Amino acid sequence: MSEKRLGFFARYLSLWVFICIVLGVAVGYFLPGIPAFLGRFEYAKVSIPVAILIWLMIYPMMLKVDFTSIRNAGKKPKGLIVTLVVNWLIKPFTMYLIAWFFLKIVFKVPRNTWPAPCS
Fold first, then answer.
1. What is the model's pTM?
2. Residues 6+ apart with CB under 8 A from 108
3. What angle do CA 80, 86, 87 make, to 5 degrees?
4. Which of 19, 41, 53, 105 could be 48's S-S partner, Cβ–Cβ 3.0 to 4.6 Å?
């Protein structure tokens, strides 16, 4: 079987992410008008520019989905069950506990200033 090598972009993905973070912070700091302008494009409290960029980030991954493996997931459900249990039973509670720990213990944020739950 031939060995698959990572492409240039994939090999340096951490570097690209770091560069984008630095550029985003620099734009926000040195050119605050750009984030203010982009912030005006919102629908139902969703930033349209952010939604478009997230779609552009996720779309290439969607093209690589192997639909035969999805069909076969029902034949060997162990991985599917583990994923569902972790994502729906373990992660929400651990994230709540981590948030509680940082808000209440580490930073001692007063309860009346905590973010309101999503409605």
1. 0.52
2. none
3. 85
4. 41
Contact 111, 100 (CB under 8 A): no
CA-nearest of 71, 55, 74 to 63 is 55
Rounded to whole angstroms, how far apart are CA atoms 54 and 48? 10
* Tens digit of each residue's pLDDT (9 = 90 or more) over 16-70: 999 999 999 999 999 999 999 999 999 998 999 999 999 998 998 888 888 888 7
Residues 24 and 56 placed together within one structural domain of the fold = yes
**Range(s) of the domain holding residue 32:** 1-65
Q: Which helix (H) or strand (E) holds 37?
A: helix 33-39
Domains: count for the chain = 2
